[in-house]
Design goal:
Blueprint (H helix, E strand, L loop, with lengths): L7 E12 L2 E13 L4 E5 L6 H9 L6 E10 L2 E2 L5 H10 L1 E4 L3 H4 L6 H12 L4 H14 L5 H5 L8 H14 L4 E5 L7 H17 L3 E6 L2 H7 L2 E6 L2 E7 H6 L4 H8 L2
Parallel strand pairs: 3-8, 3-9, 6-7, 7-8
Antiparallel strand pairs: 1-2, 1-4, 4-5, 9-10
Helix pairs in contact: 4-5, 4-7, 5-7, 7-8
Bound molecules: adenosine-5'-triphosphate.
Adenosine-5'-triphosphate (ATP) binds next to strand 1, strand 2 and helix 1.
Length: 261
């Protein structure tokens, strides 16, 4: 199931920030791969360059940041050669992202249902009625019981865990094959964390998505990931199958992260 060509292949990516006369290379010669239905973790301490890697893949690096070199392939698309218009289209149809703080990622003045329907209608030529039906189905798929009741609620009226499920539904409604999850459970309490992790595990099989999971939490990695890249100061210092990496870490930094768990 995880055999075959990569869904996402990042090769020798370098992303830097120029501020005044200073240049910070946040991502320095990073190469990573995600296969269909695989959960790949990118771990490392705060400031190691995980989020900048994600933003580079999504085409969301803004000045003073610049992607200096490398290649990012998503399916048959060469992302660094895409225009911003093409990238906007790909974000939604091919790749989607969920963030740490789902409440802030949602629009506070629109109902949950409205936001889902708008995403559907942005990507599919369907009537309002069909969009609603699709939105409701996707809510159910993301583990939201009683979607009809939730449809007319505003983000502040539902819990953080439910908001994250709504974000997952929004991410998947357009049929994206790659989901980038940037610290998806960090802001949630432990029991809700476990539920969301389970949900991610389920949707990768059911919706055939590959997931790039960005986290500093090795517990989350052990629970969910198949493959791990360890990042430090912008570089990948070690990578491997999750079982091998945990049982036999080679790089001192990986050993340190595992000991600090
Ligand atoms: N807008 C920016 N301007 C200047 N430098 C930046 C900017 N964004 C990121 N950086 C640099 O990139 C480095 C990596 O940041 P990044 O957010 O990717 O780390 P991270 O591993 O995701 O950390 P965290 O877990 O705290 O989000 C930072 O230490 C900072 O030096």
């Amino acid at each position: 199931m995880m055999e075959g060509p990569a869904l996402l292949k990042v090769s020798h990516l370098r992303t830097s920030f120029h501020t005044g006369s200073r240049k910070v290379t946040a991502v320095d010669d990073v190469s990573i791969e995600v296969k269909p239905q695989q959960i790949v973790a990118l771990v490392g301490e705060s400031g190691s360059g995980k989020s900048v890697t994600a933003m580079s893949i999504l085409g969301l690096v803004d000045p003073p940041g610049i992607i200096e070199s490398g290649e990012i392939r998503l399916g048959c698309n060469n992302l660094l050669e895409c225009s911003s218009r093409q990238l906007r289209k790909l974000r939604g149809t091919e790749m989607a992202v969920i963030f740490q703080d789902p409440m802030n990622a949602l629009n506070p003045v629109l109902t949950i249902g409205r936001q889902l329907m708008e995403t559907v209608m942005l990507h599919k030529r369907v009537s309002g009625k069909e969009a609603k039906a699709l939105a409701l189905r996707q809510m159910q798929q993301a583990g939201l019981a009683e979607p009809e009741r939730l449809f007319n609620k505003y983000p502040f009226q539902i819990s953080g865990g439910m908001c994250q499920r709504v974000m997952i539904a929004i991410a998947l409604v357009s049929g994206a094959r790659l989901l980038i999850a940037d610290e998806p459970t960090t802001a949630l309490d432990v029991t809700i964390q476990a539920q969301i992790l389970k949900e991610l595990d389920r949707i990768r099989w059911e919706n055939h998505v590959g997931i790039l999971l960005i986290t500093h939490d090795l517990g989350v990695v052990a629970e969910l990931a198949d493959y791990v890249y360890v990042m430090k100061s912008g570089k990948i210092v070690e990578s491997g199958n999750v079982f091998e990496l945990f049982s036999n870490p080679v790089h001192p930094y990986t050993k340190y992260l595992i000991e600090c768990r």
